[in-house]
Amino acid sequence: MTRIDELTNRIRSLESCIVAFSGGVDSSLVAALATRALGKRALAVTAVSPALATGELDGARDVARAISVRHEVISTAELEREGYRANDRDRCYHCKSELYDRLGALATRRGYEAVLSGANHDDLGDWRPGLAAAAEHGVIHPLVDARVGKQEVRELARLLDIPSSEKPASPCLASRIPYGTAVDPEALARIDRAELAVKSLGYGVLRVRHFGVLGRVELPEDSLAALTAEGRAAIAVAVAAAGYEEVEISDEPFRSGSLNASFTKRLAVAS
Predict the structure, then answer these.
(1) 161: phi > 0 → left, psi -120 to 50 → alpha, else beta; which?
(2) pTM, entire model
(3) How high is the mean pLDDT in each 10-residue block of the chain (271 residues)?
(4) Where are the alpha helices (DSSP H) in 111-228?
(5) What's the CATH fold of domain 3-166?
(6) Do 3-166 and 173-255 show the same overall fold?
(7) Distance between CA 60 and CA 66 in Å, rounded?
(8) How far is residue 77's CA from residue 51's CA, in Å, rounded to a whole number?
(9) Could you state, in order of their start, the residue ranges of all structural domains in the chain?
(10) Class at the top of the CATH hierarchy for domain 173-255
């Protein structure tokens, strides 16, 4: 039995499911497996809010069409939650609580047996307060349960010809705001404008970290090494036009999850 068959059979034991679907490689793999296992009894659902970067919803729709999974879009209101706006280290708990409240209600209303996430086994070694929210809501993590890590996720996604198999991680825009700085719609919109402006210059992977009037741009090591004085100037102009009074280009290469590095903890997921 192949790994894909094993995972498909795990999901086939369910009568039906909703997949929390961002269009990233993890949730795309779970959605592809779910539709293989359950056909039209699997539904991928993408949540839209001010924290979703421009282009992510279109990308999710493209992936859903490619893997032939039924797909719907809902709105979430995490910004109405005080714990989310306060932006402490448990911000993702409040975000995921909102998401799973909505997905759970949808599942109950429409008669779906379970809600699935794209969390993978490597996530257990990172700071993921959203997993605690998932446990409270009885969310199932097929990749965690099968001990599938990120590298294997991408390998399986390639085997299934999933378009997002090489897609870089794209966490919500609030992840660009340092913990302790309040999250508000204006800050999220400014970050989004700034990142779009830098992407329009040809940079595919980047982050604009939000420090009030200062926007700090982080680029991958190869882009940073090739950056010219003219390139720096163009980035500064683009980020300033998005609404930042001051612009800084970090000398340190971009590293996903850097805000979590000082307090990474292992979280247990209820089985």
Answers:
(1) left
(2) 0.91
(3) 94 97 98 98 98 97 98 98 97 97 98 98 88 97 97 98 93 96 98 98 96 98 95 98 98 75 38 33
(4) 130-136, 142-145, 150-159, 185-199, 221-225
(5) Rossmann fold (3.40.50)
(6) no
(7) 10
(8) 10
(9) 3-166, 173-255
(10) alpha beta
